[in-house]
Amino acid sequence: MTIISLPGSSGYLDASNNRKISYFSNPYVLGLTFVAGIGGLLFGYDTGVISGALLYIKDDFPEVNQSSFLQETIVSMALVGAMIGAAAGGWINDYFGRKRATLSADVVFILGSVVMAAAPDPYILILGRLFVGLGVGVASVTAPVYIAEASPSEIRGGLVSTNVLMITGGQFLSYLVNLVFTEIPGTWRWMLGVAGVPAAIQFVLMLFLPESPRWLYMKKDKSEAAAVLAKIYDPYRLEEEIDQLATALEEERLRKQGVSYLDVFRKKEIRLAFFAGAGLQAFQQFTGINTVMYYSPTIVQMAGFKSNQLALLLSLIVALMNAMGTIVGIYLIDHFGRKKLALTSLSGVIVSLILLAGAFILESSTSGNVGAYGWIAVIGLALYIAFFAPGMGPVPWTVNSEIYPESYRGMCGGMSATVNWISNLIVAQSFLSLAEAVGTGVTFLILAGIAVMAFVFVVVFVPETKGLSFEEMERLWKEKAWGNESGREALLEARS
What we know:
The chain is mostly helical. It has 23 helices and 3 strands. It has helices spanning 27-36, 38-60, 62-65, 68-96, 98-118, 122-149, 156-180, 187-193, 196-206, 213-219, 222-230, 235-255, 261-266, 268-286, 289-302, 308-332, 338-363, 372-388, 394-402, 406-438, 440-461, 470-482, 484-495; strands spanning 3-5, 11-14, 19-22.
């Protein structure tokens, strides 16, 4: 089958039957994508809401106000839970399926939201943050894989990026909620408690959705898988997809002794794929995105804007730009390509971080009044988001949802998501302390240096994966591992 990109269009043409495949061409797939993407909404809401809630938690609990470490722990305990949830999420996905993994994540998230809202002291609040993190961690592995496995390869990038849109939309929603509840008694309890609502909605909707068709075919019921695939593809393409799944299943049976975590590092092609995927996840965090999202109200106050409400309002604008930028990324990722998009994004991130660093360094040498440097810092934050959101926001999650073979997809996806959360934890736990030790400006300079390293990493280790099927992706990594000739022959055979 030949797929032709239509210049200036929003879709691709299947040359075998002249049917245009676009983001909006199949409402059923789009519905699956948005329901699964509620997991991303939970992820985004939690990362965003704690930044505003922290301003009011400090008012209620004096011990939190007096301890940067306790503030960082309240933020970071969700990341500890997410790290554990992501590590376990790969196994849960492979053994129980994507649907059950999503339902379990929702239950744990709802429990954590209730515990946080009712917390009588900072330590019960931290326990609630741990539960929420467990749910977010499982969801962060599950949603991209579920969406990718239900998506035609031509538009897979845009559909998986929709999960990232839900993440950024959740962050925007969290800042909106933060603003709404600023004048209501028990401010932070409402902010944290309402997080359970979207989890409950997803739980109910997910009961009516099917399991991932690829998981069904490989692990459970081929006829049920074919019924789901028939709702995604036309008859010609359906036959081809089932043939590819049959071939993949036969190959897995031939090599199957059961895969282990050590196999990820023993097999060269899997090791190379995991290195690229995990590296992208690490650099996504170490270039500072969740520093901006977790602490944006605090950063705005550090820039000289002392009002809690004004800080939240300006952070809301930053979150809106994050969501809008992701919408741009949904279009670009299947047209511009994953690698080019990541490199363009990182170029802008480097410039923005240098601008932020300069603003804070110069502002620290002037009086405490809001001046030009404070506004430059806020503009720098907005520019950072504008560059980051279309590229380094969706690209790591999209690449990790598609580069691993079926038998390793849950495992490697969970491992790479764990790398993301560990990196996230390191940044969240260290940012305020580092800023106090060396200054905010120098901290942003350090992030800019890491962004330069990320640019080099993408150039050297990350291949372009736009439009490739899962089977073609597997052969691409074999080509990189064992030589161009044998790998290219296998790739051409897969395309024929």
